[in-house]
Design brief:
By secondary structure, this protein is α/β, with parallel strands linked by helices. The chain folds into two domains: about 5-45 and about 285-420, Methioning gamme-lyase, C-terminal domain (Aspartate Aminotransferase, domain 1, Alpha-Beta Complex), CATH 3.90.1150; about 65-285, Type I PLP-dependent aspartate aminotransferase-like (Major domain) (Aspartate Aminotransferase, domain 2, 3-Layer(aba) Sandwich), CATH 3.40.640. The protein has helices spanning about 1-15, 20-30, 30-55, 75-85, 100-110, 130-140, 155-165, 185-200, 250-260, 280-310, 335-345, 400-415, and strands spanning about 90-95, 120, 145, 170-175, 205-210, 230, 245-250, 310-315, 325-330, 360, 365-370, 385, 395. The mean pLDDT is about 95. Bound molecules: pyridoxal-5'-phosphate. Pyridoxal-5'-phosphate (PLP) binds near residues 101, 129, 176, 209 and 212.
């Protein structure tokens, strides 16, 4: 009965062909064991967050509103303590004053690198927006090196060892693949490379761009000794509820340098009005494991159904994950545009908009972005982006609920397969 109702609604109201819906039912069956795995990771992370909230005696008095300088902001302070327990770190900055994840990364680099220091990225080319920051670091006489991954997936330990010098101050990695087809780096791999580097020189700061990775595994890079772990609140750890901001968590002295950079030397962590947002940041953190699990199920569902229709997918539906990104090679520009139009059509907000390819500063080709989000640019909400270049790969991420994610994939796939107008 319910299945009939669903089928009728999908065909009549959303115009999806029965063949696509049937494929969806099959794909959902095929991913059952992966879904169970995702649930058990979600359960562990949920209890980790609950425990951190209880340990820090979170109370409704923390849902305060601070203004002005923001001195004695109890909600902001408890949020940062809870992040420390969740990430297993000494100190945290979880602030709405960060305008984006890129801003938080910039504060960590500018706050901790001085004239003559060296930064080495050991996960290959970082994502596009970071290039402007690196150029600025170089202008300020900070040395920069980049080491490629071996076979697009493993740290090149020989090259790392050879390149470390007495000037090497920070070694950084990007956990997620970003807009590339290299593998994302799981926490075990990250832990091993941290051990390797600390043996060479324990004073090197190991920094992780953790965007899209939070709560995908049971552990975070900080559990294995990352000195600075950084991410965006409008991705995984904000749970779709946080409205803006980012976090940095790690060693106390390094966090102090980040807050000097974000605010001013001498002002630091005691300042920064949270304007009532701590409530949303706490609430978002609490639901984040569940939201991440919905995003992950959507990603493996997309991987499964696209491979059923002979598209190449990265990672495969049966692969273990360390971030929420799903890449699919759509073979042609037309497919790419049809799929992104479908993603937009399947969104709760702005579904009547049509995404179009556009030139964006920092990219060497046009980009198409589809998102009908509650929070602008939030990529924990179901969304898809694609640089328009061979092999026409679309990067799909997020979903606040599993059933929206699953059906949005079906609606977009239907539009692609049936060349709908
Ligand atoms: C999203 C993201 C960031 C931060 O980007 P913002 O849009 O500035 O928040 C950094 N690194 C990676 C890999 C990302 O995906």
């Amino acid at each position: 009965m319910t299945d009939d109702l669903y089928l009728k609604f999908m065909t009549e109201k959303f115009g999806v062909e029965k063949k696509v819906i049937d494929a969806g039912i099959q794909a959902q069956k095929n991913i059952l064991s992966m879904s169970k795995k995702i649930d058990s990771i979600c359960e562990f992370n949920q209890m980790k967050i609950l425990h951190a909230m209880q340990k820090n005696k979170l109370s409704d008095s923390h849902f305060n509103f601070s203004n002005g300088y923001g001195y004695n902001d109890a909600g902001r302070d408890v949020l940062e303590k809870i992040y420390c327990d969740v990430f297993n770190t000494e100190d945290s900055l979880v602030r709405i004053n960060f305008v984006s994840g890129t801003h938080a990364l910039a504060c960590a680099f500018f706050g901790n690198l001085n004239f003559g220091d060296e930064l080495i990225y050991i996960s290959g080319e970082p994502y596009d927006s970071l290039k402007n920051i690196i150029q600025e670091l170089i202008k300020r006489r900070i040395k920069y090196k980049k080491i490629e991954l071996k076979n697009n997936k493993d740290f090149d330990l020989d090259a790392i060892k050879k390149n470390i010098s007495p000037q090497t101050k920070i070694i950084a990695i990007q956990r997620s693949r970003g807009y590339s087809l290299r593998e994302s780096l799981n926490v075990r791999k990250i832990g091993n490379v941290i051990k390797f580097i600390k043996k060479i020189n324990p004073n090197i700061i190991f920094l992780v761009d953790n965007c899209y990775g939070e709560f995908v595994e049971e552990f975070e890079p900080s559990d294995f000794g990352a000195d600075l772990t950084i991410g965006s609140l409008i991705k995984n750890p904000g749970g779709g509820i946080a409205k803006t901001g980012a976090y940095i968590t790690g060693k106390k002295n390094l966090i102090k340098n980040c807050s000097c950079q974000l605010f001013a030397p001498g002002l630091e962590k005691e300042l920064g009005a949270s304007l009532g947002e701590s409530f949303y940041n706490l609430y978002g953190l609490f639901v984040a494991p569940q939201v991440v699990s919905c995003a992950l199920k959507t990603a493996i569902f997309a991987a499964e159904i696209f491979s059923m229709f002979d598209f190449e997918v990265f990672p495969k539906s049966s692969d273990n994950r360390t971030d929420i990104i799903q890449a699919v090679n759509l073979k042609s520009k037309e497919n790419l545009i049809k799929f992104c139009e479908g993603v937009q059509k399947a969104s709760p907000v702005n579904n009547f908009f049509t995404p179009t390819p556009e030139k964006i500063p920092g990219y060497d080709c046009e980009i198409i972005m589809a998102a009908g989000n509650f929070i602008q640019g939030s990529s924990i909400e179901f969304s898809a982006d694609a640089p328009i270049r061979n092999p026409y790969t679309v990067f799909i991420q997020g979903s606040l609920t599993w059933f929206h994610g699953k059906n949005a994939v079906l609606i977009a796939l239907d539009r692609l397969l049936n060349k709908k107008k």
